[in-house]
Amino acid sequence: MSTLVATRAPEARSSSGFRIAMLLPGALVTFLLILFALGLVLFLAFRGNDGSLLGAGFTVANFVTVVSDPLYWTVTLRSLVIAAVVTLATVVTAYPVAYYLAFHAGRRRGLLLFLVTLPFWTSYLLRVFAWKIVLAYNGVLNSALIESGIWSEPTLAFLNTPAAVVVTLAHAYAPFAILPIYVALDTIPKSLIEAASDLGARPFTSFRRVVLPNSMPGVLAAALVVFVPTVGDYVTPALVGGPASTMIGTLIQAEFGKANDWPFGAALSVAVMLVILCVVLVARFTDRRFGSRT
């Protein structure tokens, strides 16, 4: 017995050393690229702007301006509303696709999953420009409406509007919503659905009482994956949105760019992160409630 223990001890130590060696690169990258960047943003948020890279002195004036100026409240609220609409539209359209993939795709599942992930092969910027071409004054949509006789001349009602931002973002983040919902649906035991059918439940009742509650963790994960990045998006509002579509990410980018006020841009970033953190905590609480029910 003592010999067996003695031989297992070096194996355990070597296995532990191997795990540490494998985890160390990822841990270093996480620390350098995430924690260091986050710490730098927090540091800059409490600095005064003197035109230098790291600012001068420590102050809370940046946060006072963020809280007291109604402009930032208005833009932040607009960003949250647009992100919420994008999230709702994306999840609602992604759920039927994920449902089909999980229960009805059959042998075509692999091909369809490949097609779902195909947009990842192209640049996000190119997809936004594609929508700009579709929605432009002389774009694809206006041309199609004129050719079909619905309208007699092009209109500016599509581009540079909040609706254009919502459509573009919903299309861009659709794969991010489809995949987690599909995983949640695919893990539902088929025996539960069969049991509901054997007990006389109709298909809609079976979906409402069995499938939907068990897929809610995936739905909430998809909603978070879509909501969090869309709140701070600035590329899409800049390209397909107008003044009425200005989002908080656009203001942050302007502070770090043209305004050259990195401390105030950092303070805006911290404020947005706090708002998103509150949303994540609410989603976490909701996920736990659904988890306890199921």
Provide the fold topology.
Layout: H1 2-45, E1 47-48, E2 56-58, H2 61-68, H3 70-103, H4 109-117, H5 124-135, H6 140-147, H7 162-172, H8 174-186, H9 190-198, H10 203-231, H11 235-240, H12 248-256, H13 262-293
Antiparallel strand pairs: 1-2
Helix pairs in contact: 1-13, 3-7, 3-8, 3-10, 5-7, 8-10, 9-10, 10-13, 12-13
Explain what this protein looks like in three dimensions.
- This protein has helices at 2-45, 61-68, 70-103, 109-117, 124-135, 140-147, 162-172, 174-186, 190-198, 203-231, 235-240, 248-256, 262-293; strands at 47-48, 56-58.
- It has 294 residues and is mostly helical.
- The protein has a two-stranded antiparallel sheet.
- Strand 1 and strand 2 form a beta hairpin.
- Helix 12 runs antiparallel to helix 13 (262-293).
- The longest helix is centred in the N-terminal third of the chain and has 44 residues, at 2-45.
- The mean pLDDT is 85.
